[in-house]
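JOB MANIFEST
job_type = single_chain_structure
chain_count = 1
residues = 260
[input]
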Amino acid sequence: MDLNEPYSPTTPRPAGTTVTMKTFLYLTITFVIAQLVGVVLYGLYLHMKLDKVEDEMNLREDFLFLRRLQKCLKPQDAGATLLDCSAILNTFQELQGRSSDVPQKSPIVMQKGEKPTASIHLAGFKDSSQPVSVLQWTEAVYAPSDDAFSYQGGKLKVTRGGRYYIYAQVTFCVKSLLHAPFSVYMYLHLPSETDQLLLKGVRTPGRSDNICSLQSVHLGRVIELQQGHTVFINVTDSSKVNYDHGNTYFGMFELSERNL
């Protein structure tokens, strides 16, 4: 080595070469990650596809088994078929035995001595333009009705004792500037006794400016009734009652021990 040779430092790499290498490295890493994600997604797709194919194969096997069983159960086909009907029938009997071992949900059955519950629903009925002391009713469309009740003259009678829920709604029309309250009363009628007030509902309407303003009063309670007890409803002014469909109704239903 010549000591007199001038020293020259290492020539630095161009900046463009470094940027190119970094870009290539990033692209390579991105490509590898994309490949890995694609492989994972494709694996999931194949797994779901295989599960679906397996389910379809199971359904096809079940269908084929039922077809074979159907042929073996037909007397005219049992002798002509090449199927091993004895093995198929034995498999079917084993399946029946397994299903009988599974505890079944017992249906709700009526216990001995338990009577069925009764119910009735009536719709308001206007049979006179004159005010009446007791509101009149008629059987509502598609509503339950039971022989445990009898109806006459606006009064609903129970033919067997029990615990009942009684309900009623009375809708009335207000065409007055006065603030007169409208009251609804539910009475229990007992033979040879004074009628007993079961429920009372009161509503005081506001101003209506001679336009029919509909208001409703709803009543309901549980009561113990004896055979022959009768329930009826009256109001302060029956001429204001609105009898449009669904506005005014009256009914009751018996509560069984399961409801208590």
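[summary]
Residues 15-73 form the longest helix (59 residues).
DSSP finds three helices and ten strands in the chain.
exit_status = 0
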